[in-house]
Design brief:
Length: 205
C-alpha cells in the first residue's frame, strides 16, 4: 500500500540534499559559484543559444538569481567519485495548489554530457518529487531547437504535452518555441520509476 501523499499546503519543496547513483544534488549556495564557472568552461557552454549557464564573470549573479526566485529550488550537481561540481539543475515553476513542479535549468560540463549523470539526477529528483513531496505532476520544458534535451526527456518516458509558440526569448534575443513534457504520479508508480531505474543498470544501452 502506498503511503498517503502530503496535503497541498505541505508542498513547500524545501531545500534538500539528494544523493545516489554516483551523484549528489546539493542545495545551491553562494560558495558554489566558482565551481559552476569551471564546469561551464568545460565546453564553453555559455555559447549555446538555449542553455541556462553562467557566463564568465557572472557566476555569482547566476547563483543569486537562482536563489532569488521563490518558485525555484536550485541544486549544484557533484560527481561523487571525483568530488567535482559538474553542473546544475532545479525544481522550478512550483505550483503548490496543483502539486506540480518542473525540472529544468539543467546543464552539465561537456565531459559529463551523454553519460549516466543526467539519468541519475532525474531519478533522484523524480523520486523525491513523487514520493517525498507528494506531487501529482512533474513537468519539463525545453527549447524546440534543443533536440538533445528532447531526446533525453523522451527517453525517461515523459509524455509530450505540446508546443507553446513564441513562448519566451533566448539569451541571444531570438524568440523561442517551447516543448512541454510531463509525468503523472500514476505513470510514475506504474512504469516510469522502473523504466528510469533500468536505464542505470550496467547493461543498459
Amino acid at each position: 500500500m502506498n503511503p498517503p501523499s502530503p496535503a497541498p499546503r505541505d508542498l513547500l519543496v524545501p531545500p534538500v540534499l539528494l544523493e545516489g547513483h554516483g551523484v549528489r544534488l546539493e542545495p545551491l549556495r553562494a560558495e558554489h559559484a566558482d565551481s559552476l564557472g569551471l564546469a561551464a568552461a568545460d565546453g564553453r557552454l555559455w555559447e549555446l543559444r538555449y542553455a541556462s549557464v553562467p557566463e564568465p564573470g557572472h557566476e555569482q549573479a547566476y547563483v543569486e538569481a537562482a536563489l532569488g526566485d521563490p518558485a525555484r529550488r536550485p541544486f549544484a550537481v557533484r560527481e561523487l567519485a571525483g568530488g567535482t561540481i559538474i553542473g546544475s539543475t532545479s525544481y522550478h515553476d512550483i505550483v503548490a495548489s496543483a502539486r506540480r513542479v518542473e525540472i529544468g535549468a539543467t546543464w552539465y560540463a561537456q565531459s559529463w554530457q551523454r553519460t549516466r549523470v543526467n539519468t541519475a539526477c532525474k531519478l533522484l529528483l523524480l523520486t523525491h518529487a513523487f514520493e517525498a513531496i507528494g506531487c501529482h505532476v512533474v513537468g519539463w520544458r525545453t527549447d524546440i531547437l534543443n533536440l538533445r534535451s528532447q531526446a533525453a526527456i523522451e527517453r525517461l518516458g515523459a509524455s509530450k504535452d505540446g508546443v507553446i509558440r513564441g513562448h519566451q526569448l533566448r539569451r541571444d534575443g531570438t524568440l523561442r518555441d517551447t516543448v512541454m513534457y510531463s509525468v503523472t504520479a500514476e505513470e510514475w508508480r506504474r512504469e516510469i520509476k522502473s523504466r528510469v531505474t533500468a536505464l542505470l543498470r550496467p547493461d543498459a544501452a
